[in-house]
Specification:
Number of helices of chain A: 13
Shape of chain A: globular
Strand content of chain A: under 5%
Number of strands of chain A: 1
Radius of gyration of chain A: 21 Å
CATH topology of the largest domain in chain B: Rossmann fold
Radius of gyration of chain B: 26 Å
Largest interface: A-B, 41 and 49 residues
Strand order of the largest sheet of chain B: 5-6-7-3-8-9
Strand content of chain B: 25-35%
Distance between the termini of chain A: 41 Å
Oligomer: heterodimer
Structural class of chain A: mainly alpha
Number of helices of chain B: 9
CATH architecture of the largest domain in chain B: 3-Layer(aba) Sandwich
Largest sheet of chain A: none
CATH class of the largest domain in chain B: Alpha Beta
CATH superfamily of the largest domain in chain B: P-loop containing nucleotide triphosphate hydrolases
Number of strands of chain B: 17
Chain lengths: 286, 420
C-alpha cells in the first residue's frame, strides 16, 4: 500500500519551468469553446452584427487618411493612402486588443478562476486566437481593398515577400501574449497598471512607426532625442514590414525581423514563467 | 479499500500584514512607514479580517496541520462554522490556491463543484453552455456529446435547449449547471454548498444523484455543507473543522453531534449586568426553557419558554416573534404575540411566556431566535440562536431510536378488519 503511484501531487512550491503542457493539451476543447464563445457573443444584440468587423477598419482608415495624410501631410508616396492607412492600424489593433485583454486575464476572470481549476494559460490563448479570427476577417477586407485598387489603377501593391507573412504574424502574436502575460501577473497585485495601460497603449501607437506614416518619414520627422523610440521599438519594425508586404510602403529587412522576433520570444518566455508562478496563488492577492 | 486522497501536514497562512494593499502607492507608503519605524498605516484594515486569536505576528492560519486520508468510495462530509477553514481546504484540494506547507496526493481525476454553472454565458444557448461549462470542468467534447441527452433530461429543460440562457429562470440555471456536473464522471468529486439553491424536489434529486455516484460506481465524494440534514443523508464519514484544525473525524452521526455540541454553550440566557452602558430600545434580560411537567424536557413533557425584556419604547404596539430552529437548521415554527395591543407600551420590563404542548415536536437539539417588532411592521431587534436545548427522546412502542421527522404527534389510529 505504501509506494503507490499517485496521479497528482499538490505542493506549495513549483519550480520555474514546471509548465504542465500535458494538462494544457488535455484542455484543448475548452480553448475551442472559449474562442467559440467570444465569436458568438461578440456582436450579440447589435443591429449590424458582424458588419462591425468591417466598419471599424474602414472608418479608422478614412480618419487616419484625413488626419495624417491630408492634415499633417505625412502620407507615403507612390502608394494609395487608403490602403496604407488601413493596413497599419489593422495589425496594430490586433496587437492592442490581444495585449490589453491578456493583460487583464486574472482580473477579468477571477470569478471563474476562483471556482474551478484548469490551466490558466488557456484564457490568454483563447484571447489570442479569438483576436486572430477578427484579424483574419479584417485582413480579407484589406485584400479586397487591394484588389479594388488593382482593378482601378492597375497597380498591384503586394510584394512577393508576403510569403513570409506567417513568420511576421507569429512574432506579433508572441509579442502581444508575452507582454500581456507579464502585465497580467503584475496586475493581480497592482491595479494601477490597468489604468496605465488603458491610456498608455493607445498613446503608444503614435510613437510606433508604420501607422501615421512609414518608418523612414517617421524617423526624419522625430526630434533627434526621440529617435530611440522608433529605433528600439520592435513593434514599429513589424508594422513597417507588414505595410511593405501588403501595400508596398515600408521596408523589408531580416535584421529588423530577427530583432523583433528575439525580443518577442524573450518576452514570452519571461511572461509564461511569471504567469505560471502567479497563477497558483493569485486568488489570495487579487 | 485503497486510499485515493492523502493529505499530509497541510497549512495555509494568510500574510495579513505583508500582502499587497492593492496599489503601488500604498505599498510604497507601507514600506516607507516600516523604514521610519512607524506602525503600518494599513494594519487596521487587515486586523478586521482576523478570525483567530493568534495573529500577533500578522499571520492568520486559515488551516493548520491538516492530516487525513480518504478511501475510495467514501462520502466524506466536511463540517464546521463559518471561517473554520472549509472553503480554504476545498480550494486547496481543487487547486485554486496552493497550500503554504504540506503535500496532497491524489489518485484519479478530480472535479470540484464549488459553484454550478461556472462560466456560462447568458447570450449562449443551453446547448452551447453545456459544452462550455462541461469543458471548463474538464470534460472532453466527445464525452459531452455522448451525455448531452442525459444532461438535458436530468435538468428537465428539453424544450429550451436552443434558448439563450439569459431567458432562463434562476432555478433552471441551477438545474442546468448541476446536471452538467452530475455527468462529469470524475473519480473524485468535491462539492461545496451548491445544493443550497434550487427547490426541494431538485435538492432531493441532486442528493440522490450524488448517492448513486458513490454507491454504485464507487466514486469518492467530498461534501461541504451547513445543511446537517443533507450531510447526514449523504455522507458516511465526516470531519469537523474548527479554527483551521481538525477537531474531530469519524462516522457522520458522531461528527454531527460533536459539531453541534461545540456550538451549544448556553441553555438559558441571562443578561450580563456589566455590559449595560447605553440604553437600548429593547434589551433581553432573561430567557429560558423549562418542561411543563417533570424534570427534563422530553417529547411528552412539552415545554414553556419564558422571556423577560426591558422596553424603552413608549406608546407603540410591541410584538415578539419566536422561532424554533432544529439542528438541521429548519424552522420548526415562527410564532408570535402582540405584547401591547393599544399603542400603550411603557418603559419597564415585560414578561412573556409561551407553552408548547407535549406530543408535538420530535426529539432533537433545538435553538430559539427572538424577533422584536414595532407596530407589526418594523423589526427592532433580532436575536439569533439565543439558547440551545434538547428535547430528549422517548421510545415509541418498542423502538427506542429517534424517529425521523420534525414533529411526532400522538396520532390516534383506528384499526379494523374488514370482511373480504
Amino acid at each position: 500500500m505504501e509506494n503507490e503511484d499517485w496521479d497528482k501531487i499538490i505542493k506549495p512550491k513549483r519550480s520555474l519551468l514546471d509548465i504542465d503542457f500535458k494538462t494544457l493539451w488535455y484542455y484543448r476543447d475548452l480553448l475551442r469553446m472559449l474562442v467559440y464563445r467570444d465569436f458568438v457573443t461578440y456582436y450579440k444584440q447589435t443591429v449590424l452584427g458582424p458588419l462591425w468587423f468591417f466598419i471599424q477598419p474602414l472608418f479608422t482608415a478614412a480618419i487616419n487618411m484625413f488626419v495624417f495624410g491630408s492634415l499633417a501631410g505625412l502620407g507615403p508616396e507612390g502608394v494609395p493612402g487608403f490602403l496604407f492607412y488601413m493596413s497599419g492600424p489593422i495589425l496594430w489593433q490586433y496587437f492592442q486588443d490581444t495585449f490589453t485583454k491578456t493583460a487583464s486575464t486574472f482580473v477579468d476572470n477571477q470569478v471563474v478562476f476562483g471556482k474551478v481549476y484548469f490551466p490558466r494559460l488557456i484564457m490568454p490563448l483563447a484571447v489570442l486566437i479569438s483576436g486572430l479570427l477578427k484579424f483574419g476577417v479584417q485582413l480579407c477586407l484589406l485584400l479586397c481593398a487591394i484588389m479594388y485598387y488593382y482593378f482601378q489603377t492597375n497597380t498591384f501593391s503586394m510584394q512577393w515577400e508576403i510569403v513570409y507573412f506567417p513568420i511576421l504574424l507569429l512574432i506579433i502574436m508572441t509579442m502581444a501574449m508575452g507582454f500581456g502575460l507579464l502585465v497580467s501577473s503584475l496586475t493581480t497585485k497592482y491595479r494601477d497598471l490597468k489604468f496605465l495601460i488603458d491610456f498608455a497603449v493607445p498613446l503608444f501607437r503614435y510613437v510606433t512607426p508604420g501607422i501615421a506614416t512609414s518608418y523612414v518619414i517617421f524617423i526624419e520627422t522625430l526630434p533627434d532625442d526621440l529617435v530611440f523610440l522608433a529605433k528600439y521599438n520592435p513593434l514599429g519594425y513589424l508594422i513597417d514590414t507588414f505595410n511593405y508586404m501588403f501595400v508596398g510602403a515600408g521596408s523589408f529587412d531580416w535584421t529588423n525581423i530577427a530583432y523583433a522576433g528575439g525580443f518577442a520570444s524573450i518576452t514570452l518566455v519571461i511572461g509564461v514563467i511569471i504567469f505560471n508562478q502567479v497563477e497558483k496563488n493569485f486568488m489570495d492577492t487579487v | 479499500m485503497q486510499k485515493v486522497i492523502q493529505i499530509d501536514n497541510i497549512s495555509k497562512m494568510y500574510n495579513l500584514g505583508l500582502v499587497g494593499t492593492g496599489t503601488i502607492s500604498k505599498d510604497l507608503n507601507r514600506t516607507w512607514a516600516k523604514i521610519l519605524g512607524k506602525p503600518d498605516p494599513y494594519a487596521t484594515l487587515a486586523e478586521l479580517n482576523d478570525r483567530t486569536k493568534k495573529s500577533t505576528s500578522g499571520i492568520v492560519k486559515a488551516l493548520y496541520d491538516i492530516n487525513f486520508s480518504v478511501e475510495q468510495g467514501d462520502v466524506l462530509g466536511i463540517i464546521g462554522k463559518n471561517g473554520a477553514g472549509k472553503s480554504t481546504l476545498l480550494k486547496i484540494l481543487s487547486q485554486i490556491t496552493s497550500p503554504s506547507t504540506g503535500e496532497i496526493k491524489i489518485k484519479g481525476r478530480v472535479a470540484s463543484l464549488l459553484e454550478v454553472g461556472t462560466g456560462m454565458h447568458p447570450e449562449m444557448t443551453a446547448r452551447q453552455n453545456i459544452y462550455l461549462n462541461g469543458s471548463l470542468m474538464g470534460m472532453r467534447r466527445h464525452e459531452i456529446t455522448r451525455k448531452l441527452n442525459e444532461i438535458v433530461d436530468f435538468a428537465g429543460i428539453n424544450k429550451y435547449i436552443d434558448t439563450p440562457t439569459k431567458r432562463f429562470s434562476s432555478g433552471m440555471l441551477v438545474r442546468l449547471g448541476f446536471a452538467v456536473a452530475a455527468f462529469l464522471e470524475p473519480e473524485i468529486l468535491i462539492v461545496d454548498e451548491v445544493l443550497a439553491v434550487g427547490d426541494a424536489e431538485f435538492q432531493q434529486k441532486a442528493i440522490g444523484k450524488m448517492k448513486d455516484v458513490s454507491a454504485t460506481e464507487g466514486r469518492t465524494v467530498l461534501f461541504v455543507s451547513h445543511n446537517m440534514a443533507a450531510v447526514k443523508s449523504l455522507c458516511t464519514k465526516a470531519i469537523v473543522l474548527e479554527n483551521g484544525t481538525i477537531d474531530y473525524s469519524g462516522d457522520v452521526t458522531s461528527s454531527i453531534t460533536k459539531y453541534l455540541n461545540n456550538n451549544k454553550a448556553k441553555t438559558s440566557f441571562k443578561k450580563n449586568i456589566t455590559d449595560s452602558k447605553e440604553k437600548k430600545k429593547i434589551d433581553v434580560l432573561k430567557f429560558n426553557v423549562v418542561p411543563l411537567t417533570g424534570e427534563i424536557i422530553n417529547i411528552s413533557s412539552g415545554f414553556q419558554f419564558n422571556l423577560v425584556f426591558e422596553n424603552n419604547i413608549i406608546g407603540s404596539n410591541l410584538d415578539v416573534t419566536f422561532e424554533l430552529i432544529s439542528e438541521m437548521e429548519l424552522t420548526v415554527f415562527h410564532h408570535g404575540t402582540i405584547v401591547t395591543k393599544d399603542k400603550d407600551s411603557k418603559v419597564g420590563s415585560y414578561q412573556i411566556s409561551g407553552q408548547v404542548p407535549g406530543e408535538l415536536i420530535n426529539a432533537g437539539l433545538y435553538s430559539f431566535n427572538i424577533i422584536f417588532g414595532e407596530n407589526q411592521r418594523i423589526e427592532i431587534l433580532k436575536l439569533e440562536n439565543i439558547i440551545d436545548f434538547e428535547i430528549t427522546n422517548e421510545s415509541f412502542i418498542s423502538n427506542s431510536d429517534v424517529l425521523p421527522g420534525i414533529i411526532r404527534p400522538n396520532i390516534i389510529y383506528e384499526n379494523k378488519f374488514l370482511d373480504k
